[in-house]
Structure formats: C-alpha cells, structure tokens
Design a protein that fits this description.
Layout: E1 3-10, H1 12-18, H2 22-35, E2 40-47, H3 57-67, E3 73-76, H4 79-82, H5 86-98, E4 102-105, H6 114-147, E5 160-163, E6 166-169, H7 171-186, H8 191-200, H9 214-222, E7 229-232, E8 235-236, E9 255-256, E10 263-266, H10 273-291, E11 304-306, E12 314-319, E13 325-330, E14 348-350, H11 351-367, H12 369-380, H13 382-411, H14 419-469, H15 475-485, E15 486-492, E16 499-504, E17 510-513
Parallel strand pairs: 1-2, 1-3, 3-4, 11-15
Antiparallel strand pairs: 5-6, 7-10, 8-9, 12-13, 13-14, 15-16, 16-17
Helix pairs in contact: 8-9, 12-14, 13-14
Protein name: DNA-invertase hin
GO molecular function, one term: DNA binding
Pfam family, one: Resolvase
Length: about 525
C-alpha cells in the first residue's frame, strides 16, 4: 500500500508576494499524490513559519513519520517550501532517501541522478542567494531612509499613530502620556502607583484593556521617543523573529549596539526634553536608593510557591510594634496589573521556621544516603514501569496489525475506501499516536528512575565531605547546595494545617509538617 506524505509551508511574506496559500499547495500536491498511485495521504503543514528554520512543528512530525517507516512517497510543492536553506535542503533530501522514501516536487522536475542533484543544489543556492540579496537591499534601504530623517519602521507607540508613512500624535493617548509624566514627576508616586491610578480611573490601554501593567508605564517613562527623538538601529535583532517557533532555551535576545551606530530621527514630542530628563533622574534615584537598602537574605527565594493560590512566594519583612523585623515568605502580589493577588486573608509564613525545615531535610539526605537510596527504589517502582512499557508496546503492535489488516483488505478489493473506512483508519492512527506518546512518557520515567539512583550514589560519595563543612558554609554556599538537591518547596494550608513539601531534584517528593505557628 502506497502512503504519501504531503508537506506544506507558507510564511506571511510568501503568501502576500507569491500567493503560496496552503490550500493551493494542498490541492496540487494531492493531485500529484493520486497520480503517483497513493492509497492514503498524510498531510503535514507549517503556517507562518520561516523556511530558514529546520525545527518546525509540521516538518518535525513528517520526519518522525519517515523515520518510523509510515511513508512511501513524500511530495512537496517546491524545494523552497521544504527549506530556504541550501544545507537544510540537502540534509532533508538525504534523510528522506536514506529511509527509502521517494521524494517528488510538483513545481520542479526532480530526478535521482547526478545532474538532477546538481541542479537541485544550484537551484537551492540561487534561491538562498536571492533571499540574502533582498534582505541586504531592504536593510540598506531602511538605513538610508533613517539617515535622511524618515521612519523606516512603524513606530506607533502609545500616544502616536502611523498614517501613510507619517508618524502623527494620537491626541487622546498623548494626553494620557502627559498625565503619566506629571503624576510620576510631581507627586510622590512610583511606576507601580501610576499604573494603579490609570487602572482606577478606567483609562483604557492601547488594546482597550482596563488594567495597566507596570512594565508598560515604565516603557512610556523611559522611551526617548516621547521627548521627540526616535533611535533606529539601536539593537541587533537577528534571529529574534524566529523565537515564537523555538523552545525557550534556544531563543535569542536582541543585543544593544554601540551608541555611535544609533541613528536619531526627529518625531513629534509629547513632553519636553526637560520633563523627560526629570523622569530619568527620578528612576535613577529610585534605583540608587533601592541598591543601598539593607536587604534580607532568603534561602528559598526562587524555589518556593503556594499551592493554595498558585503564586510563587517571595521574601517580605514585617516590622513589629517594637520595631523589630521578622523575615517571612508571602504569596501576595502588589504589582499593578497582576492577575493573581495571592491568598486572602494574606498568607505569611516565618522564614526561619520554613528554612530550618528544608535545611534539616537536606541534612537528613546527606546524613543517611543509604536510606535515601532505599526510598528511591520504593518510590520509582522500576518493575511497574517496565511492565507498563511492555503492555503499551503490545497495544501499539495490535494497532499496527489492525491498520495492516485494513490496508490489506483494501488492496484485495474486499471493500472500498469509503468515509467509514477512512474514519476507521484515522481512529487507528489517533490511537497509535496516543500510545506512542505514553510509551515516550514511560521511557522518560524509566530513564529518570535510573538517573535518580545514580544521582544518590554520587551524593553518597560526596556526603562525608559535605557533612564536615555544613556548619562552616556561607549563605551563598548553602543556597547553592540546597538548589542542587531541591527542585521546589511548596506551602499549603495555614496554622496547624500548614504543610511544607520538599520536592527533591531526584525524588518525587518528601513531606514534612511544621509545628504550630
């Protein structure tokens, strides 16, 4: 049975310039697939994704299907739909052919010959070259326009509107910007206070929201555009546009360029330069004041949260009637615009008690690593995981057998590929996908089970040296050690029912109940 995979891709730019809609590509690719004798068609698509990226959701699913032997034929409208990067084109082509899958394009005569490969490579190189030339001309044109005093990009921040290439004031929003500067400079009010007042006075944001975020107000107060100067070429944003398609760890940040590379462009001012500079000085003064504060140290900052409201918890000092300070952790959020203000009534737990409980748990692990190893073996139940994995693998084999039976029956002409049969095949495919997902989860759990025991063996080796130094560790050293062993600390309940749960980095969880507070 011939199973064809169709890969479709369109970016916003492609659709606007060339009309490469997904629907158009799908129509001609399906025709090509049926003409090549396909009995079943699998569709994989990426919409609004650049062809320069190799890590695309639809393409990744297609490659997985090819690796699993689920595809005989692979059809794409054009090589540049597969990738705009020559190296990626060649890599994907080689990967597809190694799997024994026939690769064909609708808009390109592909032949598995030396001449065909050369032409394919040259075509990809030319397409990549053309794109780079277009990009280079675009960048050069924007830089030239900026040097001539024109705006090469839309710069319609709050208070402005962009019409026919010209930046104009949005009078209604501009009045709000003036209020923001007035409140911040003339009154004893910080950025958070300004955002809160805007929300209380029901002044809508640019998007019509009723709640103002602190970060939006700070951007308005620090952007030199409001004083009449827009700076172009301030940042190197290469690769930033692809962030939405990448996992967090692979995303890139815009980098600031040297000031001598900035291009200043005059724009309509909403506040005068003196007012803007006063705002900058107040922000700097507040920063200097904060940096000079005597800050308390919190051992669990960044890893403690409240399960009752879902908020992370942070350190907060409570000043008692006698003037003494008491460190604590709270889930209350007072930042303007926050969607979750925390538990009511306010939950606050003494830092010393919580930190002692967590630190004692860490010391217990280090004092008795053999008991910890035993507990891990009891909790991870590797035997049960392996049994579940074997059961899932059997179910996957049953589903594959069921699909083969349907395909064989179709090939033998016992029944036609009617809607009912199509629905049956789709159901089997969906079931297989669920089972494969569960299989992957079990494999990860097994891996973690093994890794956990290895980790504890490492701790056993290091425990002696740790224990001899525990009392002499500095705060930063304690904090670092704690984060090595503890993944998260969660707080739930209050008073006698307060519970502290220590989630180890190598164990599902270890619980410890506090004394009455």
């Amino acid at each position: 049975m011939n199973i064809a995979a169709i890969y479709l891709r369109v970016s916003t730019e492609d659709q606007a310039r060339h009309g490469y809609s997904l629907a158009d590509q799908l129509s001609v690719c399906r025709e090509k697939a049926f003409a090549m004798g396909a009995d079943e068609i699998l569709e994989f698509a990426d919409e609004g994704v650049s062809g320069e990226l190799l890590d695309r959701p639809g393409l990744s699913d297609l490659r997985e299907s090819i690796r699993n032997g689920q595809v005989n034929i692979m059809i794409c409208y054009d090589p540049d739909r597969l990738s705009r990067n020559l190296a990626h084109q060649l890599l994907l082509t080689d990967e597809i052919e190694r799997a024994g899958v026939r690769l064909d394009f609708v808009n390109f005569e592909w032949q598995n010959t030396p001449d065909g490969r050369l032409f394919y490579a040259l075509r990809g190189a030319i397409a990549e070259y053309e794109k780079e030339k277009i990009r280079e001309r675009t960048v050069r044109g924007k830089m030239q326009k900026a040097r001539q005093g024109g705006l090469p990009v839309r710069a319609d921040s709050y208070g402005y509107k962009f019409e026919k290439g010209t930046l104009l004031l949005n009078q209604e929003e501009a009045e709000v910007v003036k209020l923001i500067y007035k409140w911040f400079i003339s009154e004893d009010m910080g950025v958070n206070g300004v955002a809160t007042r805007l929300t209380e006075q029901c002044i809508p944001t640019r998007k019509g929201n009723s709640i103002w975020q602190r970060c939006v107000v700070k951007t308005i107060l620090t952007n030199p555009m409001y004083a009449g100067t827009f700076y172009y070429n301030r940042r190197d944003c290469k690769g930033v546009a692809y962030n939405k398609h990448l996992p967090l760890e692979k995303r890139v940040k815009a980098k600031s360029k040297p000031k001598d590379e900035w291009i200043s462009i005059p724009v309509p001012a909403i506040v005068d330069l003196a007012t803007w500079e006063k705002a900058q000085e107040k922000i700097k003064s507040a920063r200097r004041l904060w940096s000079g504060w005597s800050r308390e140290e919190y051992l669990l900052s960044g890893i403690i949260s409240c399960t009752d409201c879902g908020n992370t918890m942070h350190g907060a000092v409570k000043v008692k009637y006698n003037g003494n300070k008491e460190r604590g952790y709270t889930c209350v959020k007072t930042t303007a615009g926050t969607s979750n203000n925390g538990c009511k009534p306010i939950k606050r737990v003494p830092a010393e008690i919580i930190e002692v409980i967590v630190w004692e748990q860490v010391c217990t692990w280090l004092n008795d690593p053999d008991a910890l190893t035993s507990e891990i073996r009891e909790r991870t139940t590797e035997k049960d995981l392996r049994a579940d994995l074997e059961r899932i693998e059997k179910l996957i084999a049953d589903v594959e057998k069921g699909r083969d039976n349907v395909r064989n029956a179709l090939a033998a002409g016992l029944f036609d590929l009617d809607p009912k049969t199509t629905k049956l095949l789709q159901g089997l495919k969906g079931r297989e996908k669920q089972l494969l997902t569960r299989k992957k989860e079990l494999e990860i759990a097994l891996h973690r089970s093994t890794a956990a025991e290895i980790r504890v063996k490492e701790i056993r080796k290091q425990a002696a040296s740790f224990l001899s130094k525990l009392d002499a560790l500095s705060f930063d050293q304690k904090k670092a050690l704690l984060r090595t062993l503890v993944q998260q600390v969660t707080i739930s309940g209050r008073g006698d029912n307060l519970r502290v749960t220590v989630h180890a980095a190598f164990l599902p969880e270890v619980e410890a109940k506090t004394k009455k507070l």
